[in-house]
Amino acid sequence: MRNRSLLVLSIALTGALTVTACGSRGTSKSGGDAAGGTTVTIAVDAPLSGQNSATGLGIQYGVQIAVDDANKNHTVPGVTFKVKALDDQAQPATGQQNATALVADSSVLGVVGPLNSGVAGSMQQVFATANLVEISPSNTNPALTQGPNWASGTKTRGFKTYFRTATTDALQGAFAAQYAATAGKKSAFIVDDKQTYGAGLAGIFKDSFTKGGGAVVGTDHVNTGDKDFSTLVTKIKSSGADLLYYGGQYDEASLLSKQLKAAGDNIALFGGDGIFSASYISTGGTGTEGDLATSVGVPVDTLDSAKDFIAKYKAAGYPGDYGTYGGYSYDAATAIIKSIGNVVSANGGKVPSDARAKVVEGVQKADFDGIAGHVSFDDFGDTTNKQLTVYQVKDGKWASVKTGTIG
C-alpha cells in the first residue's frame, strides 16, 4: 500500500453546489443550494468498463436506486442526494487516483466501493487521511479490516473510515471447503489469478480443505486477461482431481471451465463470489453446467425485503448484475445516507463543516434492517452478517444449493 500526503479541502457544504449528474466520470464542485436545500454526493468507485464491469455496474445502480429512494422519500429533509460514479477498471493505480479526486470534491460525504480487494488497498489511506467514509459491498480480503497478521490471530484495524457489507474470505473459503467435503470431493487442483482477492481466497480454501482431510493434487496460476488455458487444462486432467477450485474473477474462470470440459474433463469448477455472475455462464456456455460458487449473504431474489429493489432495477433497464452485490450496495449507500441524516439533524438541519468525520462515526453505529440483511459493523468495520450461500449452475442459471454460516 502506498501512502501519499493529501491536501484535504475543508469547505462548508452549505454554499452553492454544482453537482455532476448520475454516472458522470467528471468531478463535481463544492457548494450547495438545490431547491432550497443542500446537495450531497454519494460516490461510487467500481470497474464500470472492461474486466468485471457487469458486477461493477450492479454496484453503481444499486447505489443509484438507494439515492433515488432517499430523494423520493425525503429521508434527509433539506438534502438532495446525487450519485457520482468513477471507473477504476479494476486497477489499483486508477482506484487511488479516483480516491484522490473524490476527496478533493467537498460535496462527497461517502463512497460505496470498490469491487476489488486489490483496488481497496490502494484507496484506504487516501480516504482515511480525509476522514471520508468508504463502504465496500464486495471486498472480502480479511487483511483490509483486520491487518496483515489476521491469520495468526493478531488483528488490528488500520483504517477507521473503511467498512464493508460483505463478509470475508476467511469464512467464504472455509464454507466452500466444508461444502466440497460434504459433497464427497476428496482431491482438488487449485488455481488463482495472482491478485489480492483470488490468491487470498484460494489459499484459505487450500488450508481449510486439507485440514478437513482433502488432498491438494496440484496448484497453478493464471494472469488476468489470459484466454488460452490449454497447458493448464492438461495439468488439471493429468492430476486426477475431482474438483477444480479457482480463486479469481469470472472473466478467466469461465474460459477455463469451458476449455476444461471441451477437453473431456467434466469435474466442476468451484469459485468464490468473483465468479458468481450471469456473465460467467453466458461466456462459459454449457461447459459451466454443474459448476459451483460461494457468495455472500442470502440469495437476494429470495428476500421479500429486496422485491421492490429488484423491480425498480429491472424496470429502469439498468445494465450489470444486481444479484451479486446490488443489494449490499443499496444497503451500503443507505448506511451513509442514514448517518448523514443524523449529522444534519443534530446540526439544526444544516451540513456541518466537519460532516465527513461525523458521518464516519455514524456509520460505525449503524444498526438497521437492510434489503439484503441486517446492517451493522463490528470493531474492525466488518459486517456482523456472516451468512453465505453456495450456488450451482443448473439448466444455465445459478441456483442456490446451501445457505448458512461457519465458524
Tag the structure with descriptive keywords:
6-stranded mixed β-sheet; disordered N terminus; 7-stranded mixed β-sheet; alpha/beta; 407 residues; 38% helix; Branched-chain amino acid ABC transporter substrate-binding protein; Rossmann fold; single chain; 2 domains
In CATH, the homologous superfamily of the largest domain goes by the name Response regulator
Main beta sheet: strand number and arrangement? 7 strands, mixed
The proportion of residues in beta strands is: 15-25%
Percent of residues in helical segments? 25-40%
Number of individual domains: 2
Gyration radius from CA atoms, angstroms? 21 Å
What would you say the CATH architecture of the largest domain is?
3-Layer(aba) Sandwich
CATH class of the largest domain: Alpha Beta
Mean pLDDT: 91
Could you explain the architecture of this structure?
This protein is an alpha/beta fold and 407 residues long. It has twelve helices and 15 strands. The strands form three sheets. The protein has a seven-stranded mixed β-sheet, with helices on both faces. Strands 1, 2, 3, 4, 5 and 6 form a six-stranded mixed β-sheet that branches. It has a two-stranded antiparallel sheet with strand order 12-13. The longest helix is centred in the last third of the chain and has 25 residues, at 322-346. The protein is globular. The protein starts with 32 loop residues before the first strand and ends with a strand. Residues 39-396 form the Leucine-binding protein domain. InterPro entries: Leu-bd (IPR028081), Peripla_BP_I (IPR028082). Residues 1-21 form the signal peptide. This is Branched-chain amino acid ABC transporter substrate-binding protein.
